[in-house]
Amino acid sequence: MNTTQLGKTGPAVSIVGLGAMGMSDMYGPSDRAESLATLAAAVEAGVTLIDTGDFYGLGHNEMLIGEALKTLPRDKLVLSVKTGALRDPAGTFLGHDTRPAALKNFLAYSLKRLGVDYIDVYRPARLDPDVPIEDTIGAIGEMVQAGWVRHIGLSEVGPETIRRAAAVHPISDLQIEYSLISRGIEDNILPTVRALGIGVTAYGVLSRGLISGHYSREKANASSDFRSRSPRFQGENLDHNLAIAETIGRLAAEKGVTAAQLAIAWVVSRGTDIVPLIGARRRDRLAEALGALEVTLTPEDIAALDTAVPKDAAAGSRYPEAMMAHLDSEKG
């Protein structure tokens, strides 16, 4: 497994990371034993970056990773934790709280659930409209000074917020959605982070399974998870997007790889400063995804993908309208 550095100030990490959210939340029930086996298999394969959030499964995801860490080499792993999202007992999202006192409280619980002394990369999950980003980053900076956090990251924020945050403290990376059919960061956000020496950890590289080659109208009809409420998975939008997925699958077959591998390889090809997060919940899906690292895309392959899947090809927004309103990254 090759490694890269998260930005000019961040830690060295494997060129792909494991996003653990689906093991606890958003995609229906998961199997604890298989989740733990998948975490172990990822580390054995050389994955060093594990991404979670303190609100994933209302703390379940951190406790799951904490259990896995009892038999994994903590000193060789980079734990990335998002924070600040508020949920009620039913799991409904209520907003965000990134006040300094709240962040220190959230961090204390994360350290306890994970069973660790420090978190490698700590980041607000979204911009809190009621708290200046300078106050948020300043508070995490104090936690860096105290030794509880090693690096500061950002998530789903736009160019102005990125620049303001970086003026307060070095930022290792921006976590944001990026895939063949979610390329909005290329206009303004990607140039901004590159100018500032900030890396990117890309989630949603398979667009929540939509372009993985494993999703279908039948699965959509039977689904009651997060995707059933996502505009890209509804009605005519889904028909349009599944047609795009079929096109990706055809190009993948011509190259002798799977659709998921082609889609992940495309993100890897965008630059060493971009680290895809693989959201595998099972070992077989993990093995398939890691196979993307053996795929070399030629300039002709890239051109064919750009022609077949234009930048704004997807139908529907990537989140429901209410959630889109919380994305500073979508505000220009």
UniProtKB/TrEMBL annotation:
Superkingdom in the source lineage: Bacteria
GO cellular component assignments: cytoplasm
NADP-dependent oxidoreductase domain: residues covered: 16-308
MF term (GO), any: oxidoreductase activity
Pfam entry (one): Aldo_ket_red
Entries under InterPro entries matching the protein: Aldo-Keto_reductase, NAD(P)_OxRdtase_dom_sf, NADP_OxRdtase_dom
Gene3D superfamilies reported in the protein's UniProt record: NADP-dependent oxidoreductase domain
This protein's UniProt keywords: Oxidoreductase
Protein name stated in the entry: Aldo/keto reductase
